[in-house]
Amino acid sequence: MAFRLKFSSRALREIGEAREWYELQNTGLGEEFIAAMELQLKRLEHAPLLYAEVIPSVRRSLLPRFPYGLFYAVRGDLVHVLAVLHDAHNPRRWPKTKARGQTITDNYGDTLLNTPYRVYLVKCHRNSYVDKV
Asked: Which of 4, 32, 73, 98 could make an S-S bridge to 102, C-beta 3.0–4.6 Å?
């Protein structure tokens, strides 16, 4: 079964920023970043449940060759890409929480998920940080 992909505005913004940064470092590297992103997105379309949940309802898939993780939620036949974060980014950037039981949004105001839990910071795989419920 092929899943459909949907991107938050934050994820699209972060992909564009990363592409621009890599292109400034070395001509063509930005396109290689996009190619790695497209490869990982094709994998998500076919097997999104392959990757582990890092917080309830949110999974993380690591990009090949580049130190980025795709954070996404699976709902029915939809894969909603919530954020694309560099492994070294400040963990307090995502997600920003409201009171217990309310909607969690990121710093750009995009809705990420609805949860009854408080968000705690934990160290994750590959020396990166994510917020954990």
From this structure: 98
Helix (H) or strand (E) holding 127: none
Residue 34's CATH number? 3.30.2310.20
Coil/strand/helix, residue 61: strand
Q: 53 — phi, psi (to 5°)?
A: -75, 130
Burial bucket for residue 28 (CB in 10 Å: 0-12, 13-18, 19+): exposed
How do residues 72-87 score in pLDDT, each as one tens digit? 999 999 999 999 999 8
Question: 3-class SS at 49?
Answer: helix
Residue-wise pLDDT for 19-36, tens only, equals 999 999 999 999 999 999
CA distances from 69 to 55, 116, 118, 129 (A): 14, 25, 22, 10
Q: Smallest Cα–Cα separation from 82: which of 1, 14, 30?
A: 14
User: Can you tell me whether residue 57 is helix, strand or coil?
Assistant: coil
Instruction: Measure the CA–CA gap between 45 and 27, rounded to whole angstroms.
Output: 29
Overall pTM surpassing 0.90 (yes/no): no
